[in-house]
Amino acid sequence: MATAGISESAASSSSYLDIPLHIKYIQNLDKRQDLAYHLTSHLRLNGIYWGLTASHIMGQPSALDKEGVIEYVLSCWDGESGTFGPHPGHDGHILATLSGIQIMLMQDAIDRINVESITQFLLERINDDGSVSGDSWGEIDTRFTYICLSSLNLLGKLNQIPLEKKEKIIEHISKCRNLDGGFGRVPGAESHSGQIWVCTAALSILDRQDLIEVPLLASWLSERQLPNGGLNGRPEKLEDVCYSWWCLASISILGKLNWINKDKLINFILGAQDLEDGGIADRPGDWVDVFHTIFGVAGLSLLGYPGLQDIDPVYCMPASLIDKLDIRKPYATLERMTSYP
Amino acid sequence: MHGIKRTRITPQAAEAKRLKEQGKIEAYLALEQDVLSRKRSKDYTTESLEQTTKLLDLNPEFYTIWNFRRNILLSLFPSLSPEEVVFYLKSDLKLTTSYLLVHPKVYWIWNHRIWCLKSVPTNPDGTKQWKEEFWKGELKLVEKMLDADSRNFHAWDYRRYVLSSLPTQKPLSDELKYTKSKIESNFSNFSAWHCRTKTLLSIWEKEKTSEDKIRKTKDEEFDLVTQALWTDPADQSGWLYHRWLIGSEPPIEVLNREIKNIKDLHEAEPDSKWCMNALAHYTLLSAKYSITSEGDQQKLKEEAKGYYQRLEQVDLDRKERYRDMGKFTSK
């Protein structure tokens, strides 16, 4: 198979993570303002969160201009919805909200945002049946459930959810559970690693991990690893570096990271680096982007790759910060190696 | 960027590309500026609507523009006749169809479509003719989308949504036929197997099906999945379905029959990890039955342990899982 050939040769040519090059890549993201850059402005705030978190995990939390980032986040405020949009002039949405909070926490500037208004926005997204909407237009998705809970917990406002609503949220997540122990977007939807991560992490935040069938789900997650070392998101699909986060963070929350082949996955992620211009791609030989860069780096961190900072699998943020906020939930990562291979 | 091959280009070529793009970028930014300023001033006019179409043509992921578009339509509708409203909604469905064919995985396009369908008015004569007509068309669209990509979860979710929203409900048995045709054309299509589990559960719940009848249906399902397992024992889709059919407390005769069937397959495929995984799990399950004597229980646990030990050797990437599972067997 052609792809297997590429990944093998690429993996052998890159046996280490080129941190300086990836930091440079992240620092330059804003400089290449081509058409694709402008067409993705609806992901800009998420992009900054991805780049900033990757810098933190690679040990360079000051890689981006601190005040510049803070100013930008503040400029994304949408007064009408009372929360952040992804870019100035865009509508507020729960997707941008979490990124805004995460960035401001990492920049130690949470006192500069309107926590009350954001809390209000988040609480209003919780529907009577326990589902959570992304904005006032009403789309529901378990991603939004997670974002709502994670955001509130990061802000220290989780206890503002009324008890009966909390029960409804738990009920809704349970309705999204499937035969394979995994979870889908909405009740009835097929299990998908991304949705499994959000549901597993959401149940963790609510201290309801008991609702997860651990051996069944962790087995399913371990089957996501393909012979080339990469992970896929669903049965009989292609591998992709971003699942090094969705699957791996889930299996870390379940305490079963040893159920996959660590070395093979490390080599797969390393093989997806662009060693000329920096960044990590979905799979070896493809164009890189900041989304796959953070999830590749984050996956390597969970696997104990040397020289990286710890990441918290429930919040996808630096573990030291989560510990400082005192909102850590149970999970297990692999011991940090001193050298690799 | 998913699945786009990286190519090396010279700095000169990159500069040429940038210059070539420059005009496009300027035009895009000017249009964006115009639409966002109309949005700020709440300029809910047909001119604004046309501008949103132009911008969405270039960038259908720009959700703020979809929101603005809906606000324009919501503002126009009260002064329009129901026929005119239907006309607008029809043209938006046409628009989203053309986008979905190019961008089948963009959430915002699917969302807008759902909003359009929910906005279809009742006919002036009080009938639901328009609603019927609109929703029926959706099934055709979604079948087309699933023909193009049979694993697109957006399309599968949308299909479930459409089926639950049809003004005149279709019998659930139709969905069994549909998933069966999808499965038979490709046993690897786990999305279809998954959908089948949900459909069967809905039928059983809705019709309050008796245990006997459920068991009969399951027997037919076992026949179907056995075909899949024998066709390609390395494909996990069928195994997941099989395990769902077995469940947590199958009748002991069913469990023993299935264990025997899988043993037959295992004999033909001695290295199949899926056969061994299923046998280990089902053997442990059968050890739980009270009619099993204590001596037999011990034997069954040993048998399961044997499978896990063998799995540690044939499926090296997951050897620690099998080691852990092997430890559970003695509990």
Q: How would you characterize this protein structure?
A:
The complex is a heterodimer of chains A (341) and B (331). Chain A has helices at residues 2-13, 19-27, 35-39, 44-57, 66-75, 94-106, 115-124, 142-154, 163-175, 193-205, 214-222, 243-253, 262-271, 290-302, 319-325, and strands at 77-78, 83-84, 280-281, 288-289, 311-312, 317-318. The radius of gyration of chain A is 19 Å and the shape is globular. Chain A has 15 helices and six strands. With 341 residues, chain A is mainly alpha-helical. Helices cover 48% and strands 4% of the residues of chain A. Chain A starts with a helix and ends in a 16-residue tail after the last helix. A two-stranded antiparallel sheet of chain A has the order 1-2. Chain B starts with 10 loop residues before the first helix and ends with a helix. Chain B is built from 15 helices and no strands. Chain B has 331 residues and is an all-alpha fold. In chain B, helix 8 (172-185) runs antiparallel to helix 9 and helix 14 packs antiparallel against helix 15 (319-329). The relative contact order of chain B is 0.04. Chain B: This is Geranylgeranyl transferase type-2 subunit alpha. Chain B: Its EC number is 2.5.1.60. Chain B: It catalyses: geranylgeranyl diphosphate + L-cysteinyl-[protein] = S-geranylgeranyl-L-cysteinyl-[protein] + diphosphate. Chain B: Keywords: Prenyltransferase, Repeat, Transferase. Chain B: GO terms for molecular function: Rab geranylgeranyltransferase activity. Chain A: Keywords: Metal-binding, Prenyltransferase, Repeat, Transferase, Zinc.
